[in-house]
Specification:
By secondary structure, the protein is α+β, with helices and mostly antiparallel strands. Among the domains are: 63 residues, no CATH class; 77 residues, no CATH class; 45 residues, no CATH class. Helix 16 packs across helix 17. About 4% of the residues have low confidence. The chain has 17 helices and eleven strands. It is globular and about 80 Å long.
Length: 452
């Protein structure tokens, strides 16, 4: 009886040991390997709220295979001669808000078909009619419209802009989460010690700039410089300039992408405008201004609430100081990246965000030295209407706001044809340009005739 009991206990012990070793080997199967992409669906089990909110944004739908006839928004019953292909030829779509490009695979490569659909205007327009067969999306588009793009194979892990496009490959993060929640591993693995060492969470605007930008890739990893119209092998949070050669206004003599005053004219250029704005330099300007005026006293970390996004978003107890903060006002200082906020579509929320820092510029606020900030009724105009006018064209009309955070005076329209802040959208659109120029000069006499 005693022998039977001993054998029974021995069997249990051996089973437990095998189970523990087997479990550990399974959890450690990726040890020594480089991180790899696992796709956004793997994030859902732990981050369901973030996942579902992200799914409702435009990012995951920027390039997708046809799953339903409703995915195709264009009118294929149209007799428009621009439409030279059939709906049945469409295998993939790019875009779902302003315009939609139609794609099919030919000989293992994705190609855009020679007409696109303007969604808001409900019309067809030609698209790379002469060059569409010379526009492989693996070279021109897929680095930004997919996640986990491999420049050596042209393969990718996921259609659209997924979690790992901003946070980096997620395999090690998943492995570490398993290790620190498994009864077999918690004795050796410290969850707090490993937290955020296996996944990237960065406020750096370069994360957005990898796609909201124009230019070509740099040389590296057997990739020829200029081979791709996007950065390759970019690691989120690092400097985009190390992976990318941006296009600038000086490279655009025909003014295809920039207006004559240097502001962006075309889409995918938000990063370029932001990089030249005072927002991007907010931290540097704060430090320089204080060093030039020591009589103002000691610089407080509280100033960073407006001048530094890494300070603003850091949890209490982990906030950087004036000496350790790294960034000015970056993209996610205004844009909540997971889609929880309606900021991108609500002008009122944009204004509320602006007023958190620009308190002296609130409507109607008067000082001894300055008149009201602007003459228009505050219930009819927002900060963005003047400082982020619609000057970028997509979908056949000026539908995107400038990210240079500059007033565009009416005189600029006379000089470069750029839409101005006073007559933007429906604002004073019923008045003449001459009226707008005179009214602007009357209210802002200190601004020079060239708009500076």
């Amino acid at each position: 009886m005693k022998k039977t009991k001993k054998r029974y206990l021995l069997k249990i012990a051996v089973t437990v040991i095998i189970f523990v070793i087997g479990g550990s080997l399974y959890l450690h199967k990726d040890i020594g390997r480089k991180p790899y992409y696992v796709t956004s669906t793997e994030c859902k089990s732990c981050h369901e709220n973030h996942y579902e909110s992200w799914r409702a944004t435009l990012h995951p739908h920027m390039f997708k295979p046809i799953e339903s006839p409703n995915d195709i928004l264009g009118d294929f019953e149209s007799s428009d001669p621009v439409l030279t292909f059939k709906k049945e030829e469409v295998e993939y779509v790019v875009g779902s808000k302003w315009e939609q490009v139609y794609v099919r695979m030919i000989d293992g490569e994705y190609y855009p078909l020679p007409a696109k659909w303007y969604i808001k205007k409900q019309s067809w327009v030609p698209y790379k009619v002469e060059t569409w067969k010379e526009t492989p999306m693996s070279k021109k588009c897929n680095g930004c419209h997919t996640t986990g793009f491999d420049p050596s194979t042209h393969e990718f892990s996921e259609f659209g802009i997924g979690c790992e496009a901003c946070h980096g490959p997620g395999s090690l993060h998943i492995q570490n989460e398993l290790e620190t929640s498994s009864i077999f591993c918690i004795g050796c693995h410290d969850k707090e010690k490993n937290r955020n060492k296996d996944i990237i969470t960065s406020v750096n605007s370069s994360v957005c700039g990898q796609c909201h930008n124009r230019g070509v890739n740099t040389l590296g990893n057997s990739v020829t410089e200029g081979e791709f119209n996007f950065p390759v092998n970019y690691i989120p949070g690092t400097r985009i300039e190390d992976s990318f050669i941006p296009l600038s206004a000086k490279d655009d003599p025909k003014q295809t992408y920039w207006w004559g005053n240097g502001l962006s004219k075309n889409r995918h250029q938000e990063y370029a405008d932001w990089a030249n704005s005072n927002h991007s330099q907010a931290l540097r300007l704060l430090l320089e201004n204080h060093s030039s005026h020591p009589e103002k006293g000691e610089l407080s970390d509280a100033c960073l609430e407006c001048h530094s996004t890494d300070y603003k978003l850091a949890p209490e107890g982990s906030k950087p100081t004036v000496d350790s903060a790294k960034h000015g006002v970056t993209c996610i200082g205004c844009h909540e990246p997971h889609g929880f906020s309606e900021l991108s579509t609500s002008s009122k929320k944009i204004s509320a965000q602006c007023k958190d820092c620009h308190i002296d510029k609130k409507p109607g606020v008067k000082t001894k030295k300055e008149p009201p900030h602007y003459p228009c009724p505050s219930e009819q105009v927002t900060c963005a209407d003047c400082h982020m006018p619609y000057i970028v064209k997509t979908g056949g009309f000026f539908s995107l706001r400038s990210h240079a955070f500059e007033i565009v005076p009416p005189v600029s329209t006379q000089q470069t044809k750029i839409p101005n802040s006073c007559q933007n959208e429906t604002c004073h659109s019923d008045k003449s340009l001459e009226w707008a120029m005179a009214a602007f000069q009357k209210f802002y006499p200190e601004i020079k005739s060239n708009g500076e």
